[in-house]
Write a structure and sequence with these properties.
By secondary structure, the chain is mainly β. 0% of the residues lie in helices and 28% in strands. Strands 1-2-6-5-4-7 form a 6-stranded antiparallel beta barrel. A two-stranded antiparallel ribbon has the order 3-8. It is elongated.
Length: 166
Amino acid sequence: MVFRGRGRGRGGGGRGHYDEGPPEEITRIGRLLHTAEGDLVLQTESNMVPYFNAPIYLENKEKIGKIDEIFGPINEYMMSVKLEPNMQASSFKRKQPFYISTQKLLPMSRFLPKPPAPKGPKVKRAGGATPRGRGRGRGGFRGRGGGGGGGSFRGRGNRGGFRGRR
């Protein structure tokens, strides 16, 4: 079976990579801790969490690479930065600051467990959501015709609903 003219198939289609250029606004994300296998390891100084593959810049908004991994404890995490092909890890000084676009950050609260909801009085639900009886508290569509068959397919008899054409 051949489908033609129906979009671009699976995988989101033809989103190409393009250079967004330097961002309008940058913020300090961290400082160089050390280098490892040609990558930079940054200690973060922000209470925000960066996107994966977010570009990393110097103070003059020159792109030096992108975030490869985020690791470590949640309160003082680190990240590795994969450098651009024309950059050398040895050209950066220890504790040198690095920057990221403010558009590429998420709040830390997004990654923390939500606090439990305040406990209040129990709300009675319509439909008899009680542990006894037939347990119809789940709602949903029950179809046409008489109520309850107990969930078995044995001898329902004439309970209404669709009976075909006569």
